[in-house]
User: Fold these one by one.
Assistant:
Number 1:
Amino acid sequence: MPRHIRFALAAASLVLSAACSAQAYPSKVVRVIVPFPPGGVDALARVVTTAMTEVMGQPVVLENRPGANGIIGTELVMRAAPDGYTLLVTASSALVSVLFMSGAPPFHPARDFTPIGGMYDGVQTIAVRAGLPVNSVKELIDHARRNPGKLTYASSAIGSPFHIYGEAFKRMAGVDILHVPYKGTGPAARAVIAGEVDIAFPTFGNLAGNVGRVKVLAINGPKRYARYPDIPSMNDTLPDFRPIQAAIALFGPARLPQPIVMRVNADLLKALRSPAVKAALDQQDSVEIGGTPEDLADTLKSIVETTAGLIKLTGIKLE
């Protein structure tokens, strides 16, 4: 048999095998890894995976695998077999931030993972502890300038988007504030709620109904949020401040067969439209993203550009 015919038959066999696998998928439990501690990304992701269980006809089980700023759980998925039974839910910004750490990044978001689809995005804020004597971003800046080095801000880890936000805020506002890293967005939000730190950059979802126990000074973005129209935008005070999109999204390992990618994407979109998910998103002030795998790939590219710009602006070293 001629060589070119053997190659063609082999390629056709692989395509047929992938198609058959997709038709049988899923035939067992699907694990979804969240590489952060409980109380952050997993809160809404668990509602989504519960809805996906109903749609897919097999248990979709969410597991927290925190550590090393999300790297431990993320690498677990990177090394998993590309069969659709081990997936990753993470903040797209966290997946990108490793590219800017010193040394060799442990993975590359475009090379080592397969985008499946967006889940949701939270409305980001700048919040301060209840006892801090400020009621606006301008008052916070003035207070910080009168007390250089005395205020603290929480982030979800060194090198996290919230670390970058804090350093960008310091640079643009011309203030000296101490960075206090925590192990995840949930612990960082709880720190400002409890008054352990002065400032944080949580989403409304991270605050989990504790808006009254902290002062939300501004929406971290160019526009006000319709549900809280009296809270100004950060850009009202710092016009050039730009947040990094922290979209929560679903990924698989590299080389995940396209038929499985499209099946999971379709089931994810159905789950996002379920009444339970819509109610949970509304309750936690988050918005559905959805979209195609290609949309998610474009989002990653945009986050890389925004992160690179902020890191260049601040000059911070992510080690």
Number 2:
Amino acid sequence: MDLGYHVPDFTWRGGAAKLAPQLAEFVRTAERVGIARITVMDHVWQIHVIGPPEHEMLEGYTALGFIAAHTERVLLHTLVTGVVYREPGLLAKMVTTLDILSGGRAALGIGAAWNEDEARGLGLPFPPIGERFERLEEALQICLQMWSGDEGPYDGAHYKLARTLSSPQPLSRPHPPIIIGGSGPTWTPRLAATYAAEFNLAFRSTELTAHQFGVVRQACDAQDRDPATMTLSAGQVVCCGSSDTDIARRAAAIGRQVDELRTSGLCGTPDEVIDKLGRFAELGATRTYLQILDLADLDHLALLGEEVLPRVAGL
């Protein structure tokens, strides 16, 4: 199993003026301790499970460009892009640009979008769920066509492109990896089986994860695809400490109860965190995105790098 880091929050100590240097220090530290990839949300308002909508939120692809400039090895993508927030031709160019300027380190994480409040609030399109999934499939087809070098037109039900020229082409071969995330029972598994290198179900229990992984494997079978070719990934809030005192201090710093975190996330000593990661590995997850809610706590990253990362590679 490899570990990524998911940046969920931009409300940091010191306010907006301190955000850029703190984010740069955090991502450099994450890379140094062995984190394999860094992801950001694709939201324009904060989501309710993290904080109120008024909390700071950065636009995802601009943030990834900044992170690319302060790292050298980690893979970069959203977890995941809301398909209706950008026209697919522009999205393909944005991911291509990130891939080229990062030296081939971009991926496309994408889903059908769900936060109607932020979309309505800022005037972004938010059609009904069925149409969003139709648009998601067309967007995937457009990105793959643009990344194939095919400059022909694309004539879909929702998107019509006269010439799918994309120059330059991405450095990643055959194209930036595609990650599809979500808990939908029908569309999401089928689209993942058809188009994606990775399926992600983030911040769910082992029971729900086991169910959705099973549905995705069935979708692969239906597409005559070997399920073993699909990377399955999870995502969990992590609160790790060398002692109960450390764990309680970190939980208090993010306004959470230890019991809550132990129930819903990876909370505990390094041994306990590794044990919980092992449960997801048993379900087939070969990647987990960690979500640290106090990004100013670089000692937390150091502890994970020293005590957890070296021991999860064999899970």
Number 3:
Amino acid sequence: MACGERAALAVADVLRDHVAKLSLSPEQAKAAAHILACRTGCLGGHLALCDRCGYQHFAYHSCRDRHCPRCGSLDQALWAEAQLPHLLPISYFHLVFTVPASLRPCFRGEGRVHALKALFEATSETILEVAARRGLRPGVLAVLHTWNQQIEGHPHTHCLVTGGGLGQDGFLHKDRYLFPIKVLRYVFKIKLLQKLRRLHGQRLLSVGRHSGYQLLRDADSRVWNVDVRRPLAGPEQVVRYFARYTRRIALSDSRLQSYDGESVTFRYRDRKDANRVKSKTLDAPSFCQRFLSHVLPARFVRIRRYGILSNRVREPLLQRCRELLGAESPSAVPRETRSAACLRIFGIDPERCPNCTEGRLVVHAVWRATRLPLDAVLASLQPRAP
């Protein structure tokens, strides 16, 4: 059961009218069907009765799809809390590795899964190998973004990196970043270009043979953008920023301003104009196509960990780092139900009766979700009446 109210205007409203006209991949069709069915009778629901006043409360279930802009707020908050015990009492840095505009066609179509894997590999290898030259093993938490504020294709990775690393002489930590940005930029450029050239030679990218080599040559002649930032509010701020995109893509329902059945207007921040808030209008099919273009391939992992944060070695290496830094181990987090977590984080108790505010809602009946093929769900969509 979701903790918040449904927005007055939602991405699902636009998809419902126009998604049936689009040519979608299986992953995009599945995500669209889930978003459209979210909090409707298609996914089932339950009837809860107040144990005090007998109030009847009907609730539809959420889709829990990682691409849905409507649900997942509680999962995001819980994920962010789960990352905090992994933070060490040291400085952290926020790195952004951006793919040049000339290479963006390589990250489209059926070959995008190979290009996205290459982007993750180039990012992690750049940080770890540059650190290894100094005898250090840092911790890296990386998350993939494939969009910009105008929901255009813009593949890049955000990384939260420790301001030091584990070495032979202990844990080396400095307040200033250890690696020159020019070195990171150069190594990242070489590594990603090598990987994309290899993939293009194997015909695994969705670009023409000759045009692909032209794109690679153009990218090689340009200066690449690698940004290093210091989180002013601490690493917790970056973790919360990462958490916003663990369960969503492109934009949230709150950014939508208007929809008249033919065009969509949404808010965005213009990075080239001092982050001023502006409005952009797209025809509805283009909006749907842009939004669904950021649906990830099946089973693709969006958030990855490297170095001392790697899943296989994280616990022993973090404990070793705490011992070297003289830091205490984090206390164990007690288990709690989702209802209790919703009350603690959002101040909303989903089990409290909204009628008498004193009784508790007890589930009395549950109905199952309908199981229709995705093609049938999308083909049954009808535009809303004017």
